From TrEMBL:
Lineage: Eukaryota, Fungi, Dikarya, Basidiomycota, Agaricomycotina
Annotated Pfam families: Aldedh
Gene3D superfamilies: Aldehyde Dehydrogenase, Chain A, domain 1, Aldehyde Dehydrogenase, Chain A, domain 2
Organism for this UniProt entry: Boletus reticuloceps
Protein name per UniProt: Aldehyde dehydrogenase domain-containing protein
Gene Ontology molecular function: any one: aldehyde dehydrogenase [NAD(P)+] activity
PANTHER family membership: ALDEHYDE DEHYDROGENASE-RELATED
């Protein structure tokens, strides 16, 4: 097949040329042995956008070989931090130049509103690349006193090597940057596997990698099915580290494959069933706004979605009424409509999964305060849905739904609120709303989550670490902590004065 497709954005009539081949050594190439295609679908219309090559295990081998060659010749320890910084900044400039085009393609393939993709996802991506560009020439070790008269030791933070990176479909551009930026800043090379549901913007970003001037093989992109490309990267004996964002079930498989192959380093950002606690002292209007953002942003397709809400009994009825009123105000519609604050869920499979949970919630006796009715017509649209009268053993309370479905319960005491919040196998995010400063300190300390928000929710910063506890993953992304995921520490012992007498 041709290595490009011309796609017309329906609402703007803009024609975008999208690469459809595999990106290896800065070129778009056909598969070595696969005729299989990935069909990108517009979730707002259910129509095909275009098709791209589905990479095979052999294609992963070729991409890994290209990444290894680059690592030992033109990248890795063969390039200065200053040059890595310059290239990362150049890449950020190119993404900023193409921000609107990338946002339109993201909306077309993922469904999210163009304004959200452009101003939030891609705006944050540009900042992320520039943040790590600032780190690229500041990755330093320590000089350690051993014996000032005879010897010293020092450490080097070496790039870990070839990295397999597997990203999800909910934030295709943003998750690409979270993985790529720290890896390149440290001097690693990459084989990227985007989600088979949303491969298009990863291919456009690969085009910008070449335009920015990165040496061939530094970043390679292999769209493929998860059980093919993801499995091949996880089990590959010449991959030094694998980074994955996605479901806990897939994370287990990746960790097992990494252990059984070459015991490669693994970082996992997995699922969540994150709680928000609303205490009686909170600013209820603001708390309702943040609670809506927590579950409705990105149509609930967010690992940290605040999908369990617990409200103190003294304000329960008042707060639920306010919450329902505010949730009704969000427009879920076509991503190219400026009025839309959310779009469809990403696929038919996801749509059916979300509706399965909604029907399950009804069957198990939860009360619908909002939503729960299907729309007619095309598109995988799910309107905001709020359940009350929940019990802790309900599936809508225990399982990650990944849609705009909120479970609301009550509590009497602070201790009860903490126990309810921590009653989950996950530990990615948590939030609390209170104007009692002492309570904020007590509860934020007691919540078992990698990120805790106080009087806000779901906002992240590139200089603040992010990651999970329990079954929400291991390792950290963002901030200086992410650099640790892409470096290995080498200790060098230097003897300049001690003489060894022999035999012992």
């Amino acid at each position: 097949m041709a290595q490009t497709a011309k796609v017309v954005i329906p609402s703007t009539k803009r024609e975008v040329e999208i690469p459809t081949g595999l990106f290896i050594n800065n070129e778009f190439v056909p598969s070595a042995d696969s005729n299989e295609l990935i069909h990108a679908i517009n979730p707002a219309t259910e129509e095909a956008i275009c098709s791209v090559v589905a990479g095979s295990g052999k294609d992963i081998d070729l991409a890994v070989a290209a990444a290894r060659k680059a690592f030992i010749t033109t990248w890795g320890k063969n390039i200065t931090g200053f040059e890595r910084s310059r290239l990362l900044n150049k890449l950020a400039d190119l993404i900023e130049r193409d921000q609107q085009i990338l946002a339109e393609v993201e909306s077309l393939n993922n469904g999210k509103p163009v304004k959200i993709a452009r101003d939030f996802d891609i705006g944050d991506t540009i900042q992320c690349l520039r943040y790590y560009a600032g780190w690229a020439d500041k990755i330093v070790g320590q000089t350690i006193e051993v014996d000032n008269q005879k010897k010293l030791a020092f450490t080097r933070h070496d790039p870990i090597g070839v990295c397999g990176q597997i990203i999800p479909w909910n934030y295709p551009i943003n998750m690409w940057a979270w993985k790529v930026a720290p890896a390149l800043a440290c001097g690693c090379t990459i084989v990227m596997k985007p989600s088979e549901l949303t491969p298009l913007t990863a291919l456009l970003l690969s085009k910008l990698i070449a335009e920015a001037g990165f040496p061939p093989g530094v970043v390679n992109t292999i769209p493929s099915l998860g059980p093919v490309g993801g499995a091949a990267l996880s089990a590959h004996r010449d991959v030094d580290k694998v980074a994955f964002t996605g479901s806990t079930a897939t994370g287990r498989k990746i960790m097992e494959a990494a252990a059984k192959s070459n015991l490669k380093k693994v970082s996992l950002e997995l699922g969540g069933k994150s709680p928000q606690l609303i205490f009686e002292s909170a600013d209820l209007d603001q708390a309702a706004n943040w609670a809506c953002l927590g579950i409705l942003y990105n149509t609930g397709q967010d690992c940290t979605a605040g999908s369990r809400l617990y409200v103190q009994d003294s304000i329960y009825d008042k707060f639920v009424a306010l919450l329902v009123q505010k949730a009704k105000e969000l427009v879920i519609g076509d991503g190219f409509d400026e009025k839309s604050g959310g779009g469809p869920v990403v696929s038919k499979v996801q749509y059916d999964k979300v509706w399965g949970y909604i029907e399950d919630g009804k069957a198990q006796g939860a009360k619908l305060a909002l939503g729960g009715q299907k729309r007619s017509g095309k598109g995988y649209f799910v309107d905001p849905t709020i359940f009350t009268d929940i019990k802790q053993d309900m599936n809508i309370v225990r399982d990650e739904i990944f849609g705009p479905v909120l479970s609301v319960g009550g509590f009497k005491t602070e201790e009860e609120a903490i126990a309810l919040a921590n009653d989950t196998t996950y530990g990615l995010g948590a939030g609390l709303h209170s104007n009692d400063a002492n309570q904020c300190m007590r509860v934020s300390s007691a919540l078992e989550a990698g990120t805790v928000w106080v009087n806000q929710y779901n906002l992240l910063n590139n200089n603040v670490p992010f990651g999970g506890k329990k079954q929400s993953g291991i390792g950290r992304e963002l901030g200086s902590y992410a650099l640790e995921e892409y470096t290995s520490v080498k200790a060098v012992h230097w003897n300049f004065g001690e003489k060894l007498e022999w035999p012992l």
